[in-house]
Specification:
With 256 residues, this protein is an alpha/beta fold. It contains eleven helices and ten strands. The protein has a six-stranded mixed sheet, with helices on both faces. It has a four-stranded mixed sheet with strand order 4-6-8-9. The protein is globular. Bound molecules: acetoacetyl-coenzyme A.
């Protein structure tokens, strides 16, 4: 059975990391399968979003595979981290909106995968953290860069330097979780949210807005505002503004 299972619905897919015995830890096989699955979804014009979750009741993803990393030489460690980055970027740079349904432990590379997603729905029983320093490591799949961009540098440093896990309530307080839901219902909630995002909303506009937000985080306010004007103007090369505003003026819901 594949270590990454993809189930396509009408406009989105559910991608399940499936190595339940190792709490869905990310080894080379999982990373390669994740990259391939994202490429397939990317190429499928019917798809607008992806919900990522972990198999079983216990874990989203408990991290990069510790057994696979223990004896790495520096060059091999570099290649492993680079492959991890390719996998995280396949999600973060995808045209698809991504939601992590965090159904349990999201640690190390698991939290980094959730951070590569646009949004995070977190179950009450979940525990999140970057425990790498307790293993003599640092976060190697993007955590040092993406966590501060989501929660701010101070809180990110506290999590990274301590390696401590936080619970779902704390994750919501610091803006890491978009929503906290009952244990066992993260996937359903994430799929519900994805359906809402895929209905009566322009995918072209969503992509432009998302790009403006992400680009803005990495540049000055002035440059970010300029990019917003560019993205706003670019949209008018597509039919969507006319469709959306036409529907409003005719007092009906737009179908994009
Ligand atoms: N890598 C490999 N195997 C893992 C794993 C991981 N990250 N996390 C859990 N497993 C395996 C365990 O070794 C165990 O296997 P066996 O049954 O063969 O012994 C199985 O999954 C179940 O785990 P536990 O028995 O430990 O379950 P538990 O309920 O006692 O504890 C846990 C759960 C707190 C999540 C614990 O498993 C744990 O601490 N896991 C490691 C978490 C971690 O440190 N993650 C960061 C990894 S480093 C990283 O991700 C680097 C990076 O950024 C690239």
């Amino acid at each position: 059975m594949s270590v990454v299972i993809v189930e396509k619905r009408e406009r989105h897919a559910v991608l399940t990391i499936s190595r339940e015995k190792a709490l869905n830890a990310l080894n080379g096989e999982v990373l390669a399968a994740l990259i391939a699955a994202m490429a397939d979804l990317e190429a499928d014009g019917a798809m607008r979003g992806v919900v990522i979750t972990g198999a079983g009741e216990k874990a989203f993803v408990a991290g990069a595979d510790i057994a696979a990393m223990r004896d790495l030489k520096p060059a091999e460690a570099s290649a492993f981290a680079a492959e991890g980055h390719r996998a995280m970027n396949a999600v973060a740079e995808s045209r698809l909106i991504s939601i992590a349904a965090v159904n349990g432990f999201a640690l190390g590379g698991g939290l980094e995968l959730a951070l590569a997603c646009d949004l995070r729905i977190v179950a009450e029983n979940a525990k999140l953290g970057l425990p790498e320093v307790t293993l003599g490591l640092i976060p190697g799949f993007g955590g040092t860069q993406r966590l501060p961009r989501v929660v701010g540098r101070g809180i990110a440093l506290e999590m990274i330097l301590s390696g401590d896990m936080i619970d779902a309530t704390r994750a919501a307080q610091i803006g890491l979780a978009n929503r906290v839901v009952a244990s066992g219902s993260a996937l359903a909630e994430a799929e519900g949210m994805m359906k809402t995002l895929s209905t009566h909303r322009s995918a072209v506009a969503q992509r432009a807005a998302r790009q403006a937000v992400y680009e803005g985080a990495d540049t000055s306010l002035a440059k970010g505002l300029e990019r917003e004007i560019d993205q706003f103007a670019n949209l008018f090369k597509s039919d969507d503004p006319r469709l959306g505003m036409g529907a409003f003026l005719e007092k009906r819901k737009p179908e994009f």
